[in-house]
Design goal:
With 351 residues, the protein is mainly alpha-helical. Helix content is 74%, strand content 0%. Helix 5 runs antiparallel to helix 6 and helix 6 packs antiparallel against helix 8. It is globular, with a radius of gyration of 20 Å.
Length: 351
């Protein structure tokens, strides 16, 4: 009996170690090393590239199939490595990590789990869509809704690399603005999502499985189960995700009809809604807002975009449909829009 327990503990240690190594090597290759180099570019050139919405033009292209494909290709080139990493880690959490460990760390209700989720997200630095598969894996491993939402939002909102880019490109006042409002945004939305989740706040979407199925899920070759889960998650998430990216790419001209919006309330609300729906790669909001400010956009709409563009998107909300109810996703989306509006109104007084 003791030998069996020791063997099981040794096996768990091996697979947890493999998961941690994949995460460290993956983040170093996809995020840490490239962003370290990009920080020097931001410092020296005060730019990290063109706006993915309009490129060198002064406006987004008219809605068309060409505009959709063009955006999907440009966006895909920016995120494909991080998306693969997100799928590997999201499936790995379900297969390689004991769900009891995840539940013990992030499964309780309240701010302690919410804060832990946010802190764990800071070194990951993923965009909202690439973080979505990992968030799904966390939720299915019995992390609470509050901790998952906090982790998911903190990735793009409190991304330290993006904050550095923002400081060098837009000014350190904007970076500080993002930190202050970002922390409030993450904690507030995570709290509301947990509160309105009701009895679903801690229960995992897999809690209804019969014991025989859960027992069967713990047997067999772990590596094969990991690859099978990876393929299942990929097939389930990517087709819908790609369709929504194409639609949003085509709709750029409708979501961002002008780049020189004034500080009026209507433009703050419009940009908060557009930023919540639209999808961008990590730190994509920095060149977007830089281009719009150069064309005369007011501080209010710019602040609304700074807070909402990276936070969530229509595709990332769709990707979490299997673990978050429609009600929870509506609470998150409305919370992001309202956060953008409040940030925009505040920016009119600050900048």
């Amino acid at each position: 009996m003791q030998a069996s327990l020791n063997k099981k503990s040794s096996s768990i240690f091996v697979w947890v170690t493999i998961f941690v190594l994949v995460a460290i090597i993956g983040f170093a290759y996809v995020k840490w090393i490239p962003y370290y180099a990009k920080a020097f570019i931001a410092q020296s050139q005060h730019s990290i590239g063109e706006s993915i919405i309009s490129g060198e033009a002064g406006a987004a292209p008219p809605a068309s199939w060409h505009a959709a494909v063009e955006y999907a290709i440009a966006y895909g080139k920016s995120i494909w490595k991080a998306m693969i990493l997100g799928l590997l880690l999201g499936s790995g959490i379900k297969v390689l990590l004991p769900s009891r460990w995840v539940s013990d760390l992030l499964g309780r209700l309240g701010f302690r789990s919410v804060i832990r989720g946010g802190v764990l997200a800071i070194p990951c630095m993923m965009c909202t869509c690439c973080a979505a598969p990992v968030a799904a894996g966390m939720r299915q491993s019995r992390a609470s809704i509050g901790s998952v939402v906090s982790w998911w939002l903190s990735n793009p909102i409190l991304n330290p690399a993006t904050l550095v880019f923002m400081g060098f490109v837009l000014g350190w006042g904007w970076a500080l603005f993002r930190v202050v409002f970002g922390i409030a945004m993450v904690l507030g939305i995570a709290y509301l999502a947990e509160r309105y989740a009701g009895s679903d706040a801690t229960a995992s979407p897999t809690d209804h499985l019969p014991p025989a199925l859960e027992a069967d899920a713990s047997t067999g070759n772990i590596l094969l189960r990991w690859m099978r889960e990876f393929m299942t998650m990929t097939i389930r998430l990517l087709p819908e995700y790609l369709i929504l990216v194409l639609l949003l790419g085509a709709a750029r001209a409708w979501l961002f009809p002008v780049f020189n919006a004034d500080d009026s309330m209507i433009w703050i609300v419009a940009m908060a809604v557009a930023g919540t729906l639209f999808v961008i790669p990590t730190a994509g909001e920095v060149p977007i807002v830089q281009a719009m400010l150069a064309l005369g956009m007011g501080a209010g709409p710019a602040a609304a975009l700074i807070m909402t563009l990276p936070a969530i998107s229509l595709p990332s909300l769709a990707m979490l449909g299997s673990v978050f109810s429609v009600r929870i996703r509506l609470v998150i989306a409305i919370g992001v829009v309202l956060s953008g509006v409040v940030a925009g109104l505040s920016a009119r007084l600050v900048f």
